[in-house]
Amino acid sequence: MIGGLIAARIDPSIMQRLAAGKRTAVVTGTNGKSTTTKMTTAALGTLGEVISQADGANMDAGIIATLTLGRTAPYAAIEVDELHVPHVSDAVDPEVLVLLNLSRDQLDRVGEITIIEKRLREGIARHPDMVVVANCDDVLVTSAAYDAQNVVWVAAGGGWANDSISCPRSGEPIVRDGDDWWSSGTDFRRPTPTWWFDDESIHGPDGFTAPLRLTLPGKANRGNATQAVAAAVAMGADPAAAVEAVGTVGEVAGRYGVRQVGEHSVRMLLAKNPAGWQEALSMIDPDASGLVIAVNGQVPDGEDLSWLWDVRFEHFENSAVVASGERAADLGVRLLYAGAKHTTVDEPLAAIASCPPGRVDVLANYTAFRDLGVAIDRIERSAGVSRG
């Protein structure tokens, strides 16, 4: 990001000037930003050259650096941190804003999630011509987009509801009935989606239906793909071509990738907050030889790990888990109360080595994921192994 930092110091308007003339999609949300941005990039690629972050650097410096590298590309798909969306949108004037989900994440940095919802709502109001592709299954996202003039509603799923017990607009309780929800005593309720998905297909406007075959696992990624397709179609992409393109997306910045580490085939999954952990836990292979959960508590992770008690680790009451990372002891206490059989091995590579030979799933938060990836890269370089 150093190039972006320097460029912004020299010219504070550099982001606006670099984005001028591009047709831009901005993607934001608490979880799934990198994956959905990569899918949106693939879908927009059916129209022409697209510039996007290769590494998920989603604040000003990373965005500027990305735009600098793609001066001639007519399209941009930009991942943006939730806090930065309003002023980034003011600079790049996006044609489409994709709103995935909103939930608590790093309270010591971000603050309460209702603050983010209000800032997004205010930012959207400043861009009345912008198309907002919004997840109508997420109460907070729906509130942020509810007053926008151009909204494409997508039923992208909302498995985590603990942060939307009350209405962000009235404070009244949210009532749920199956997929439907509404705010008691008000007219605020789940909009009717234009796009949705099921176990086999994606469905859209004018009777459009196509098989949705993804390389990436999990229901959450089917929702991400549906929003990516909706965004690309809003920018002129052919729906069938967009659906085929999102199906080509595999590893995303190391996530879901499989790496060979000695006798172990290691699949790496990233989770950063309770909502993300809930989705990631559903992707764990019950037939894997081992499961390592690695948790750090550095600044990028959020130093307050009290959220561990919101994650349903009771899911592993019949599975053996290796607790690892800088905060392995905190994780071990949580697993103990969850009734999950576990051992504690602080260093993630040693934790993987402690598992029986074969397939090992590693579920890690941000810096634990990053540091393990660097360590495996180092092993591969020393052994002369090239990736993919």
TrEMBL record:
Keyword Oxidoreductase: no
Protein known as: Lipid II isoglutaminyl synthase (glutamine-hydrolyzing) subunit MurT
Function: The lipid II isoglutaminyl synthase complex catalyzes the formation of alpha-D-isoglutamine in the cell wall lipid II stem peptide. The MurT subunit catalyzes the ATP-dependent amidation of D-glutamate residue of lipid II, converting it to an isoglutamine residue.
UniProt xrefs under SUPFAM superfamilies: MurD-like peptide ligases, catalytic domain
Quaternary structure (record): Forms a heterodimer with GatD.
Catalytic function, reaction form: beta-D-GlcNAc-(1->4)-Mur2Ac(oyl-L-Ala-gamma-D-O-P-Glu-L-Lys-D-Ala-D-Ala)-di-trans,octa-cis-undecaprenyl diphosphate + NH4(+) = beta-D-GlcNAc-(1->4)-Mur2Ac(oyl-L-Ala-D-isoglutaminyl-L-Lys-D-Ala-D-Ala)-di-trans,octa-cis-undecaprenyl diphosphate + phosphate + H(+); beta-D-GlcNAc-(1->4)-Mur2Ac(oyl-L-Ala-gamma-D-Glu-L-Lys-D-Ala-D-Ala)-di-trans,octa-cis-undecaprenyl diphosphate + L-glutamine + ATP + H2O = beta-D-GlcNAc-(1->4)-Mur2Ac(oyl-L-Ala-D-isoglutaminyl-L-Lys-D-Ala-D-Ala)-di-trans,octa-cis-undecaprenyl diphosphate + L-glutamate + ADP + phosphate + H(+); beta-D-GlcNAc-(1->4)-Mur2Ac(oyl-L-Ala-gamma-D-Glu-L-Lys-D-Ala-D-Ala)-di-trans,octa-cis-undecaprenyl diphosphate + ATP = beta-D-GlcNAc-(1->4)-Mur2Ac(oyl-L-Ala-gamma-D-O-P-Glu-L-Lys-D-Ala-D-Ala)-di-trans,octa-cis-undecaprenyl diphosphate + ADP
Domain Mur ligase central, chain residue ranges per copy: 27-231
One Pfam family cited in the UniProt record for this chain: Mur_ligase_M
Pathway field: Cell wall biogenesis; peptidoglycan biosynthesis
Organism the protein comes from: Williamsia serinedens
